[in-house]
Design brief:
The complex is a heterodimer.
Chain A: E1 2-5, E2 10-14, E3 19-21, E4 24-27, E5 32-38, E6 44-50, E7 56-58, E8 64-68, E9 73-78, E10 87-94, E11 102-103, E12 107-112
Parallel strand pairs in A: 2-12
Antiparallel strand pairs in A: 1-4, 3-9, 5-6, 5-10, 7-8, 8-9, 10-11, 10-12
Chain B: E1 5-7, E2 10-13, E3 19-24, E4 31-37, E5 44-50, E6 53-57, E7 64-68, E8 74-78, E9 87-94, E10 105-106, E11 110-114
Parallel strand pairs in B: 2-11
Antiparallel strand pairs in B: 1-3, 3-8, 4-5, 4-9, 5-6, 7-8, 9-10, 9-11
Classes of the chains: A mainly beta, B mainly beta.
């Protein structure tokens, strides 16, 4: 069984500040991990994914995430927030088959001018 | 190229009714998955179909069913609607059956309200 916990349902940062969104996972098998973004009234868009090739994963729009097995974490970061980053962010995990994703509850990122 | 398209975008039903939601995958994609997203929560997996066969089923009651057609489009059916079925229903498509090796592309969803 797999599960994902996202700490902080709401995160607020100032424009230009560091963005840090936290994700911890639980998996009985080596996990595949994903971050998705959802803008209002839209579907989900893949930001990045970890597939065991490298622990530091770079994604779109300047986001990156680091897989830390010892901490069972996959936190999402961006050095400098833009207003356009305001959205809901979801961390997800899948097993070996990859036929289903288990999502966390989401973190709403707000960016203040 | 068109992305994943879903219809209808919004609908309102009453308790006990039946609903059918439709999804057209990206051209060339053979896998379709359905997710339910209740307001304020993350999406929850309902079904995956690949090459017209069910490849996965989430923890949903038998009132939920789906199928995939020869052109790879898909329908999600929900019978005997309950208030708790109110949610955004997301369809996602991918080339192959695994999101580990390929990318899952999501549609904008069908928002169902049950009164």
């Amino acid at each position: 069984a797999q599960s994902v916990t996202q700490l902080g349902s709401h995160v607020s940062v100032s424009e230009g500040a560091l963005v840090l969104l936290r994700c911890n996972y639980s998996s009985s098998v080596p996990p595949y991990l994903f971050w998705y973004v959802q803008y209002p009234n839209q579907g989900l868009q893949l930001l990045l994914k970890y597939t065991s090739a490298a622990t530091l994963v770079k994604g779109i729009n300047g986001f990156e995430a680091e897989f830390k097995k010892s901490e069972t974490s996959f936190h999402l970061t961006k050095p400098s927030a833009h207003m356009s980053d305001a959205a809901e962010y979801f961390c997800a995990v899948s097993g070996v088959r990859g036929n289903m994703l288990t999502f966390g509850g989401g973190t709403r990122l707000m960016v203040k001018p | 190229d068109a992305g994943v398209t879903q219809s209808p975008t919004h609908l309102i039903k009453t308790r006990g009714q039946h609903v059918t939601l439709r999804c057209s995958p990206i051209s060339g994609h053979k896998s379709v998955s359905w997710y339910q997203q209740v307001l304020g929560q993350g999406p929850q997996f309902i079904f995956q179909y690949y090459e017209k066969e069910e490849r996965g089923r989430g923890n949903f009651p038998d009132r939920f069913s789906a199928r995939q057609f020869p052109n790879y489009s898909s329908e999600l059916n929900v019978n005997a609607l309950l208030l708790g079925d109110s949610a955004l229903y997301l369809c996602a498509s991918s080339l192959g059956p695994s999101s580990n090796t390929g990318e899952l592309f999501f549609g904008e969803g069908s928002r169902l309200t049950v009164l």
